[in-house]
Amino acid sequence: TILYSYFRSSCSWRVRIALALKGISYDVVPVNLLKDGGQQFSAEFKAMNPMQQVPALKIDGITLSQSLAIIHYLEDTRPNPRLLPQDPKKRAQVRMIADHIVSGIQPLQNLSVLKQMGEKKTEWAQNCIASGFQALEQTLQHTAGRYCVGDEVSMADLCLVPQVFNAERFKVDMAPYPTITRINKALLELEAFKVSHPSRQPDTPAELQA
């Protein structure tokens, strides 16, 4: 199993958490999104993932891209521990929160968008994340237990932690989001979230290593 990953990519981190939780061993092939004008744009990588994004996962003889598609596949083929609740209502809530982050927040502050924002990029990222977090905080007040939905780690949590990391990188004030902050803190105490952290990857620059 091979994961094409970039240490700071929040989408790659989601998949690293899933692999860690499910105890799947893998090799990392780092794809540096900044170096050489972006290694994701190489012909070799484009042949593997036409979207020229990380993560991509080679597993069971297929190559998958898109973090949630990868996580769903892992869930279908390696159901323990479960990342989607069996109860249909809770399952829908998990998917709703995951989609809120992966569709409604992360793409708006992604590298490709920020490049086009020029000097306004930090302000733009802060605004996108803050408006997304205002809605998410409200949702979580209804769904959360210890984690995003009840007391079991789910796909929603795999999306939350990397997004909070992005928020902190862009210096978003987290004070208005106590529920997000509390859940994030609880999740970061779990081993799978620690080993997959951007500060502990093979391609993490020395000055950012844990």
List keywords for this structure.
4 strands, maleylacetoacetate isomerase activity, Glutaredoxin, about 210 residues, about 50% helix, cytoplasm, Glutathione S-transferase Yfyf (Class Pi), Chain A, domain 2, 9 helices, alpha+beta, EC 5.2.1.2, about 10% strand, isomerase
Describe the secondary structure blueprint for this structure.
Elements: E1 2-5, H1 10-21, E2 27-30, H2 43-48, E3 56-59, E4 62-65, H3 67-77, H4 88-104, H5 111-117, H6 121-143, H7 155-169, H8 178-187, H9 191-195
Parallel strand pairs: 1-2
Antiparallel strand pairs: 1-3, 3-4
Helix pairs in contact: 1-3, 1-7, 4-6, 4-7, 5-6, 7-8
Protein name: Maleylacetoacetate isomerase
Pathway: Amino-acid degradation; L-phenylalanine degradation; acetoacetate and fumarate from L-phenylalanine: step 5/6
Pfam family, one: GST_C_3
Structure summarized in a few sentences:
This protein is α+β, with helices and mostly antiparallel strands and 210 residues long. Helix content is 50%, strand content 8%.
Give an account of the 3D structure.
Helix content is 50%, strand content 8%. The protein has two domains: 2-80, Glutaredoxin (3-Layer(aba) Sandwich), CATH 3.40.30; 88-193, Glutathione S-transferase Yfyf (Class Pi), Chain A, domain 2. The longest helix has 23 residues, at 121-143. The chain contains nine helices and four strands. It has a four-stranded mixed beta sheet, with helices on one face. Strand 3 and strand 4 form a beta hairpin. It is an alpha+beta fold. One of its GO terms (cellular component) is mitochondrion. InterPro entries: Glutathione-S-Trfase_C-like, Glutathione-S-Trfase_C_sf, Glutathione_S-Trfase, Glutathione_S-Trfase_N, GST_C, GST_Zeta, GST_Zeta_C, GST_Zeta_N. Pathway: Amino-acid degradation; L-phenylalanine degradation; acetoacetate and fumarate from L-phenylalanine: step 5/6.
